[in-house]
Amino acid sequence: MGAQIAAACDAMEAAIPDCLVNGYEHLIDGLELPDPDDRHVLAAAITGHADAIITWNEKDFPREVLDPFGIELQTPDEFVLNQIMLRGVIALTAIKGMRERWERPQYTAVALVDLFEKRGLPQTAAHLRDVVNLI
Q: Is residue 44's pLDDT more than 90?
């Protein structure tokens, strides 16, 4: 692993100490999903006591499979918007900080909102347009 990747992994673990899930492998064979290659995601979510799986791949994580484990399925757009709604000032401050750190290219707040929409986050972008002066 390259030094830059290792540093990013270390930073993520420092910021979110329980972000890595281990010991889920024994659950994989007992899970049924439309795409068997996705079973490790559900197994890790169960083991890590996740509240949600965040994915665009909704068809491969049916609610009837997730519900017994108390795991919700959210699109990235739903997840980001939920974080903004639940943790308003903190989330908006984080988005502003992210925008200000980007140097190549630099983004205005309006351009960042447009990028969110272009990248498939239309609900998030719509909300951010209402508070664009804060990011």
A: yes
